Amino acid sequence: MEFAMKALVYQGPGAKAWEDVPRPEPVADSDAIVRVDATTICGTDLHILKGDVPALVEGRILGHEAVGTVAHVGVAVRNVAVGDRVLVSCVSACGACRFCRNGRYGQCTGGGGWILGNEIDGTQAEYVRVPFADNSTYAVPPGVSDEELLMLADILPTGFEVGVLNGHVQPGDVVAVVGAGPVGLSAISGTRLFGPSLVVAIDTSPARLDAAKQFGADILVNNSEQDPIAAVRDLTDGLGADVAIEAVGVPATFELAVDLVRPTGRVANIGVHGKPVTLHLERLWSRDLTITTGLVDTSSMPILLRLLATGRLNARRFVTHRFDFGEFIQAYDTFSNARETGALKVLLSRS
């Protein structure tokens, strides 16, 4: 096939293949075509393969995170040039709609939002079309490796914005993070920037709890062996956490997060939910709780880039496994069986 490339293609729930597809071409003058030099797999991709995103069509190239080299720019692109090394954001921003003008790029109504690997072909490929390139790519800072920068495409801003900022973490807070996967670890890292008194990590995996300790958790609770509600109340004179961050996306962990917080506490839901969740208003209405949800906007990207470039944010420790592009299926197997493999984030790069 002329101008063919390899890509990871969604073939319906539970099915995927690394196969030949046409190389992307520009559609709009604001597009860039980026040669993907490094990409990764997100927990959202696993939710897609489980069927939790039923609107996704078969034949879609998955993925929404990449670091790469610009191969083509449209005539309307001003800030990006051929040959530039860029971070591709998981969220595309038209820059002109009401939500983009308020920094809420995840809710873009001008053709952006979470479209890569969802509404249009994504980044788990040798090349990707990036709409609104001026607003949806970021220059690679000097001295920052591909694998460090790649963690800013999604998980670090997601944990920071949807978890820490939505949860209004304050100095001295007790923060409980339910789920010590990559996004939960990102939330722990972001929480530490605000001076909490205690960060409690809750998970059923000893390996992920060990990772949570490395990322800044003070207390580890294995909720297959210990009652996390009792543990948190013991630490807070019976009141509960000031903030609970849900980073799994299943009904049981959401309900646990709600039960962990004190009266007037805040629950920040990050997890991607594919099933209905019970909200027990019959016992919650009088507790003055705040519950937030959200899709990442990536509006915090400039802040996180500065923190990364100055060493205040350590992203290198997220990557536990490395693969060549030709090993995508093996990488998915490793990432989806994290309990056995110990995978946090997997890196896929050109040989």
Topology:
Elements: E1 4-10, E2 16-22, E3 32-40, H1 43-50, E4 66-73, E5 85-88, H2 98-101, E6 127-130, H3 133-136, E7 137-139, H4 146-150, H5 155-165, E8 174-178, H6 182-192, E9 198-203, H7 206-215, E10 219-222, H8 228-235, E11 241-246, H9 251-260, E12 261-269, H10 281-284, E13 290-292, H11 301-309, E14 319-324, H12 328-336, H13 338-341, E15 345-349
Parallel strand pairs: 8-9, 8-11, 9-10, 11-12, 12-13, 14-15
Antiparallel strand pairs: 1-2, 3-4, 3-6, 3-15, 4-5, 5-7
Helix pairs in contact: 5-6
Can you describe this structure in just a few lines?
The chain is of the alpha/beta class and 351 residues long.
Structure description:
Helix 5 packs across helix 6. Helices cover 28% and strands 25% of the residues. The chain has 13 helices and 15 strands. The strands form three sheets. Strands 3, 4, 5, 6, 7, 14 and 15 form a seven-stranded mixed beta sheet that branches. The protein is of the alpha/beta class and 351 residues long.
Tell me the Rg in angstroms.
Answer: 20 Å
The unreliable regions are: none
Q: What is the averaged pLDDT score?
A: 95
Care to count the β-strands?
A: 15
What is the helix content?
A: 25-40%
Largest sheet: 7 strands, mixed
Distance separating the two termini: 22 Å
* Classification by helices and strands: alpha/beta
Shape: globular
- Report strand %: 15-25%
Q: What's the helix-strand series?
A: EEEHEEHEHEHHEHEHEHEHEHEHEHHE
Number of helices: 13
